[in-house]
Design brief:
This protein is α/β, with parallel strands linked by helices. It is about 15% helix and about 30% strand. It has 4 helices and 39 strands. The strands form 6 sheets. Strands 8-11-14-17-20-25-28-31-34-37-39 form an 11-stranded parallel sheet, with no helix packed on it. It has a 10-stranded parallel sheet with strand order 9-12-15-18-21-26-29-32-35-38, with no helix packed on it. Strands 10-13-16-19-24-27-30-33-36 form a 9-stranded parallel sheet, with no helix packed on it. A hairpin with a 2-residue loop joins strand 22 and strand 23. The relative contact order is 0.05.
Amino acid sequence: MEFTAKQIAGLIGGKIEGNENAAVHTFAKIEEGTEGAISFLSNPKYTHFIYETKSTIVLVNDDLELEHEVKPTLIRVKNAYEAVAKLLQFYESVKPRKTGIDSLAFVSPKATIGKDVYVGAFAYIGDGAVIADGTQIYQHTVVGDGVKIGEKCTLYPNVTIYQGCKIGNNVTIHAGSVIGADGFGFAPNTDGYDKIPQIGIVIIEDNVEIGANTCVDRSTMGATIIHKGVKLDNLIQVAHNCEIDENTVMSAQAGMAGSTKIGKWCMVGGQAGFAGHIQVADKTFVGAQCGVISSTKGNEQLIGSPAMEPKQFFKSMAIMRRLPEMYKELGELKKQIEELKKSKL
């Protein structure tokens, strides 16, 4: 596919400086630009590349001031980063999608398959499963009995959706993820542990994206719920009966214990951990490696483990760095006290 600067500017509402008929067919980083590629410049640290890049078109911010002429055609926009994201989304949307059922796939005769669905080789579709129009299910993916999957979803290779789970429209699940495995429920007894059957399901709403090798466990009863617009990175654990509300994003290796609820528009850094049975309020920012052990107020930033506000955290760290010195001083004071006691005797 090839697009001209004029077409691109019309799509993103940009202003052209240069040849409006300049055409591109691929994307490239500005420092790795090639003829026929479109790049973007949003970080001032990369400004020097604008004078040497070989890209045909470069998206730049409105306020960029040039020191001298440049070779590429420029398209000025309010926010170059947002503009390139919009272009990449458009590029993905016009790429042809696979359709048809591979002869090496197994689709139960009791399953319902919509129009323009793709099922790759060695994929498995169980009894009573419903796959809506335009969904793509790649190789070796397992869709269990009674699973319902909405329109225009993409399940990459080796995804496993356990029985009874429900997935909305336009959901992307990357390779190796498991949706609906048993929650970690065991009751101790005199001989060991009795397994508590996990009879609930997982519900994933519209426009959710789940990264590779992420696990979302089924609930003990009821449902583990991932609400619309949530974005989960790779290697995340969402335990039984958890709930992640709309448009929350979570980075890799974060983990949630059972029955935790995270609010809307939260941002969670990598390797953050959440204790069970707590509620994280809307618009909470949780820093990387943060340990959240109690419910939050919302509209706040948390860092450290246990989690605390940044000001309190940095005060604590300042004291912690002085601990070796303070310990030494404490030892000297104890000696002086002992000497005073002896002198009085």
